[in-house]
Every structure is written in C-alpha cells, then in structure tokens.
Design brief:
- The protein is α/β, with parallel strands linked by helices.
- It has three domains: 157 residues, Spo0b-associated Gtp-binding Protein, Chain: A, CATH 2.70.210; 179 residues, Rossmann fold (3-Layer(aba) Sandwich); 91 residues, GMP Synthetase, Chain A, domain 3.
- It contains twelve helices and 18 strands.
- Helix 5 links the parallel strand 12 and strand 13.
- The chain is elongated and about 135 Å long.
- InterPro entries: G_OBG (IPR031167), GTP-bd (IPR006073), GTP-bd_Obg/CgtA (IPR014100), GTP-bd_prot_GTP1/OBG_C_sf (IPR036346), GTP1-OBG_CS (IPR006074), GTP1_OBG_dom (IPR006169), GTP1_OBG_dom_sf (IPR036726), OBG_GTPase (IPR045086).
- One of its GO terms (biological process) is ribosome biogenesis.
- Its cofactor is Mg(2+).
- It is found in: Cytoplasm.
Amino acid sequence: MASRFVDRAVIHLTAGDGGNGCASVHREKFKPLGGPDGGNGGNGGDVLLVVDPNVHTLLDFHFRPHAKAGNGKMGQGGNRAGAAGETLTMKVPSGTVVFTEDGELVADLIGPGTTFVAAQGGRGGLGNASLSSKARKAPGFALLGEPGETRNLTLELRSVADVGLLGFPSAGKSSLISVLSAAKPKIADYPFTTLVPNLGVITGGDTVFTMADVPGLIPGASEGKGLGLDFLRHIERCAVLVHVVDCATLDPGRDPLSDVDALEAELAKYTPSLGGKLEERPRVVVLNKIDVPEAAELAEFVRPELEARGLPVFEVSTASRKGLRELTFALAAIVEKYREAQPVLEPEKIVLRPLAVDDSGFTVEADPEEEGAFIVRGARPERWIRQTDFGNDEAVGYLADRLNRLGVEDQLAKLGARPGSPVTIGDVQFEWEPSTPSVAMHLSGRGTDVRLERNDRIGATERKEARRIRREGTDEFEDDLDADE
C-alpha cells in the first residue's frame, strides 16, 4: 500500500479576476440625460493558505494541485456594484514552508490560524459614476477589471519538533519514541522500516516537548542517497539532535564512533533553507540496546571517548526501559534552556512608509530590441493599461490624460522621443504623439453612447447672436416706418 504521507507538493494557483465597471446613464421620464450611474466591478477572490491543526500532510495538494478563486462580478446601472469573488481558503499543516519557482522562500507558516495570501485577486474596474468629474461630467466609458495573480508555488512540510532522532536504519529510533510517548510507529527488523516522520509528545517533569523520528540516514544522505535528502528538512527546527546508536549491530565495519562521525559529516554537508547551522545545535548520544551483553560492553568502552568530545551520553534499552527516565529529564532540561534563550516574539508592527517625493512611480528606457523605441515600466502605468478598453475612444483619451499627468510624456521628450516613436507599456505598443499625449488616435471627446454624442441645446453665444439680429431688425423696421410717415 502506498504511503499516505506527502511532505512536498507543487501547486498552481490562480486568483479571481476583477469585474468590469459599468458605463450607464440614468434613465427617467423627463430626464433624458440623468447623469452617469454605472457601478464598480467587484474585486476578484484571493487564494489563502491557512494553518489548520487538524491537517498533518500535504496529500490533498498532491492529488489536486490546481486551484482557482472566484471572479468578481461586473457592475450594473443604478450605481449597483458587482459582487466580490469568493476567496479560496486552502488548509495546510503547521510547519509548511512556501517557495517560489526560483526557490525563494516567501512564507514559513507555523501556528494555528497563520495565513498567507498566496495569490492576490484582481482589482475591480471603476464604473462611469466613479469616473465623473467637473471636466468629464458624463463619461461614456468604464474601467476594466484586472486579471487575478497566477503563481506556481512549492510547499514543503518541515516538522515542528523540539527533539530530532538521528541514526542509521534499524538503530532503534522508532522503538525509542514508542516507549517515550504514545506514538505508534511501525517497528520491524529490516532497514528503512520508517518511511515517514513520526511525532511524539513527551513529558519530563514540568516540561512538555515533542520528538520527531526521522527515517534512517546513510552516508550520502545529503546528496540524495537513501531517504535522507527528503527528510533531513524535518530536523531543521529541532532544538536538540539525538544520535541513536545501535550497539548490537552485526554489520562489519560499523561501530558507535564511526556511526556518529558518519552522521555528523552528513549534517555538516546539509544546508538548511530556513537559515541557521545544524552543527550549532546541541547534541546527545544514546547508546541503545544495552540489554544485549555484548552491546553493554561496547557502550562502556566507547562512552569515555564520546564524553571527551563534549557529548552527553546515555545508555538505554527500549526492551528493559533502562536509562529512559534519565534521558527524558535530560532532554527536557536542554529543551527548556533552548526555549529560554529564544527571543520573545512581539506582535508585528505595521509601519507605513510613504513614497519619496521624487519617486515618480515609473521608469522610461530605450527598447534594446528596436531602435528609436521606448519601454515604460511601473506599477501604475501597467495597471492603467490593463484597465483600459481600447475599443472606446474616450477611455483611450482618459488613459492619455493619466499618463500625461504622471509625467510620462515629459520623460519621453527628455529621452529624445519623436512623434511616431513606438512606446510599449505592459503588453500594449502604440505610437507616441505629443499633441495627444502618449496616444496616436483621433479622440472624439465623447463616449460611444449616441445619446451623449447628440446635443440639440442652443448655446449662450447663439442666443446672444439671435437677440442681436432681432434687435437690429426691429430698429430697421422702426426707421422705415418713420420715413413712410
């Protein structure tokens, strides 16, 4: 039967897209142009990773690696905003570490309720009611919703334990954790019986600590031999490392000293991704199986040399339970000392750092692949491009005004851009025309709504001219009447 324990998974996440804004005009009897009333689009849903104490493996992600949050709804007329997309919450075990595709550590999730936004939902577009201003009282366009973030992440489970048991296969690690705690690992007389880490809770006096039984290690484990490379990560968080040595082994060429040296060499080669060095962790050596007479003699022989290295040594037998009480209290004392040495965790402070006065929020540089072309980069210009409906002249004009106010046109002119120079922002390339900032299109100045384009109202200038003509005509008529008389 295949193992149900999975401690590494690659997931593909897609956050929800933001809903489009609505371009609408209020309709009411005797009010042909009641003003814009288009609502905003809803924001797309986020993808969250939340630590759940009832989850102990990454098995669900192994079988279902793809996940997508809900999309935001489009805005509607009557100032009705679209509904926000549904947030997708994915439960992970405590000790989950999140990496990007490039291997960059982005989150270390420890403790129930810890939350990480794995993919950010897209922002909803503004409706024309929100875009109205004194200069643009009846916008005939709305902004588009932004697409949700797409990310590929690697999840790795790092066991959260105070004590880590290390040793060669069949050294007695599983037997030790089974007699010290309520854990029930598989125990057999063949190598690599333990295929998954086992956790046990142990009480020593007033101290309660956890112990992790890591699958057996062999020389070359740090390079991927055996099961070592996959499970060495489970000891990165341990406060103390315990070498469990089989003093009753019948394998030729093996003895307690060589076993400890071989495992220490593998620990020195392994580089923890969470920081720190394993060689700096406290060590304890457990000489196991002393219920066998030959093993007891060997333990007494090697004990002085191990103590000369500064290593605490304990002779135990899981069969007769000899020496287990002393080992338990010694480990509890080391764990308690380690905990006291750790800095006190303080609540994270939210620091607001305003942008520098000279921070324009964008950069303009020459396009290395096309002579005379330019590339504009920046969060705001690229977001504005994604929000623009290029099938609407007025929306394009609004984009041009925003880019001009931001200073893009001035920067292009300083770099030597000429009318017609190709300019790329995000995924869109257009020709630069200074007369219509950053946009080479003829703008109508109105939206695509026919009712907005039609205007039958007589202006003030026309009314004044009509009064003048009527007045002059009246004066001429009176002069002619006087002459006839």
